[in-house]
Fold:
Amino acid sequence: MTHPASIYCVSHRPVPLDHTGICTLQVGHAQETFCDFRDNTSVNIATHNSVLSELTAHYWVWQNQPSEIVGFCHYRRYLLPESSIEWLAREASQPYAELPPGGFGLYASGYVTEQSALGSHLTAIDYAAAMADALQDADILLPAPNKLPADSFLGQYSRAHPVEPFYSMLAAIAKRDNDLGKAAHHFFTTHEQAHWNNLYVTRWNVFHEFCEFQFDILLTLLKEDRTFPDAYQNRYGAFLSERLFNFWIWHRKLNVKQLPWCMTEAIEDGNDAHQRKIQSKNRENMIKKKA
Structure:
């Protein structure tokens, strides 16, 4: 059965989204089922969640839940329709808006609000219908982009993560198509903006084509049996996917509509301890410099 429009919130913990028009999709190893769907049923790659993070949910939807329109948010990050801008101005803050690129500044286009406030807002609007309407004159709906550091995707990645998987990704692209590999290298070393977090809404054919592209690359990289001791850095598959996504949109010349997005907890309150501590320290230093 094909559904007209399905927006999924990927989560490893219970998230209160009843009556919002968003389906919850559970990832991770919890024994208890607390979401509408789980990524370890039917055709799935749930065992790779430690590396691919939310992508195991994306893969599950691709293989098992066809719909005319499909979209993804996450337990603490949500794409919002243009009609929500006034609500955001009243209810949310932009704590990272004035920070330079890098660290917390990579989230400068996002707002921060309370989960309860967001839930009440989404309950009051027809979220799925609003997203479907926004897609009428676009190929894909994305969060507003953020400016990258001066040395582009590759430079930013090499400072935030072990860089070896990035070069493996470039090699895998070039092995499949040398011209595409050259285009990817050009993009990742020159492009100045990024849409983060794998937040998007698009039509099924666009989603299907991107999934074919990215999972062909990422599942090949998993065969290299690479493991990092830091659990955050071991999510390299998800980090690479964000970069592949930006490249694919640019290369395909998709018609993009940019929308506001919000977080329901500040980044420094998240559970990615090692990386977030580094970013928090960077933010403290920037605040001291401004003072």
